[in-house]
């Protein structure tokens, strides 16, 4: 019995040495997002509940009320109000976090534009779900519908990635004065328990400095007006400076991820290429939790690769081109879409076409999993079979 306990303890010690200054906990994706906000020393949380996001703000409420988290938590009367309050707190120089989903994000659309164009750094979590007909299950059409608001968008594959990406996102947001949206799939991630390595808060402090008020913060010694009417010549310059900083996101995100890996021991990239090389005939392109299923399926296919998109907006054109540069010219690309945007093709296909303009690869689009419909291994197998045999330009899988 003593030997058995010693062996177990030795195993635990080996695990602990993998990530020093961490605790390994079992938690749902929503709790991982809340934990990340605490670790980043967020000072203001405006909140409004909406399924399946609600447990994020519930958990934050518990942490603030118990004294575990030093922040101001405010219940708002709508998502529009929550984001308006986030805007005001960011103008005041505070580090801000909130969370939403589906209709909540749509309702905040106007304020999303304002936050971005006021150049206010903040991070939010969006638990992806669709709109009408009424549906609370996993879908990415809510966040993808906000592609043109000016927010940076990351999509997490696991609870661990959600927590780690939020920490990285605050650094990115505050270096470039841009807001960041971290998206996780409803239920597949938000309500599924996983092993998560949670870093000590002093380790996060080493990576993420204390918040310094930015150029768009209120400064009583140097008064300025916010939100007034802007003439064309000034508006034009404002957009130029926004563009100048936004195009740095792809490179800056990679650098921040490298620094994170050095300190925390976990590696991330804007895109992840799995089994992509000169031998690859077909590449599945995925976002978020579908990636994990596809990883398992392609293990038995030496000529099939996988491209995971983590940074979606601004779309990482250079990273995608580099990842696919080793492919043979006759390789086929197959985006897997958990979204329907009212157009012929899905959002992933559209962005990939734009990034690969002029390159020789054939690409066929595959809709699978909209509205939370499950995408099990057999569905990935169907996509592979269709892509290899007789694909249409746009294919809907598992319609029944």
Domain count, please report it.
2
Mean pLDDT: 94
| Inertia-based shape | globular
Number of strands: 16
CATH class wording of the largest domain: Alpha Beta
Q: Helix amount, in percent?
A: 40-55%
Separation of termini?
Answer: 54 Å
The CATH topology name of the largest domain reads: Rossmann fold
Q: Determine Rg (CA atoms, Å).
A: 22 Å
Strand fraction equals 15-25%
Extract low-pLDDT stretches. Answer: 1-10
Q: Superfamily at the CATH H level of the largest domain?
A: Thiamin diphosphate (ThDP)-binding fold, Pyr/PP domains
Please describe the biggest sheet, giving its number of strands, its sense, and whether it closes into a barrel.
7 strands, mixed
**CATH architecture verdict of the largest domain:** 3-Layer(aba) Sandwich
Helix tally? 15
**Would you tell me the structural class of the helices and strands?**
alpha/beta
């Amino acid at each position: 019995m003593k030997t058995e306990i010693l062996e177990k303890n030795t195993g635990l010690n080996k695990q602990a040495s993998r990530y020093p200054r961490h605790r390994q906990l079992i938690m749902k994706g929503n709790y991982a997002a809340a934990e990340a906000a605490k670790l980043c020393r967020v000072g203001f949380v405006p909140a409004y509940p909406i399924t399946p996001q609600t447990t994020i703000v519930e958990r934050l409420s518990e942490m603030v009320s118990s004294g575990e988290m030093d922040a101001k938590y405010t219940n708002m009367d709508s998502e529009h109000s929550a984001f308006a309050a986030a805007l005001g707190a960011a103008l005041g120089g505070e580090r801000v976090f909130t969370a939403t989903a589906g209709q909540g994000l749509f309702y905040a659309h106007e304020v999303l534009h304002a936050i971005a164009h006021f150049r206010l750094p903040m991070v939010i979590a969006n638990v992806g779900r669709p709109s009408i007909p009424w549906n609370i299950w996993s879908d990415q059409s809510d966040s993808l519908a906000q592609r043109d608001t000016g927010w940076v968008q990351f999509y997490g594959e696991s609870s661990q990635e959600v927590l780690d990406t939020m920490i990285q996102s605050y650094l990115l947001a505050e270096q470039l004065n841009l807001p960041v949206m971290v998206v996780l799939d409803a239920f597949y991630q938000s309500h599924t328990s996983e092993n998560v390595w949670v870093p000590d808060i002093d380790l996060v402090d080493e990576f993420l400095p204390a918040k310094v008020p930015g150029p768009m913060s209120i400064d009583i010694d140097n008064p300025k007006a916010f939100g007034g009417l802007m003439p064309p010549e000034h508006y034009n310059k404002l957009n130029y400076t926004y563009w100048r900083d936004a195009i740095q996101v792809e490179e800056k995100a990679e650098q921040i991820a490298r620094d994170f890996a050095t300190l925390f021991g976990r590696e991330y990239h804007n895109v992840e290429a799995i089994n992509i090389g000169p031998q690859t005939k077909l590449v599945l392109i995925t976002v978020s939790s579908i990636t994990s299923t596809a990883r398992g399926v392609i293990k038995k296919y030496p000529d099939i690769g996988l491209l995971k998109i983590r940074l979606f907006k601004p779309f990482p054109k250079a990273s995608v081109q580099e990842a696919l540069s080793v492919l043979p010219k006759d390789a086929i690309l197959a985006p897997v879409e958990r979204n329907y945007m009212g157009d012929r093709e899905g959002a992933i296909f559209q962005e990939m076409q734009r990034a690969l303009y002029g390159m020789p690869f054939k690409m066929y689009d595959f809709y699978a999993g909209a509205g939370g419909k499950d995408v099990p291994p057999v569905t990935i197998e169907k996509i592979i079979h269709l892509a290899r045999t007789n694909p249409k330009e746009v294919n809907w899988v598992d319609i029944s």
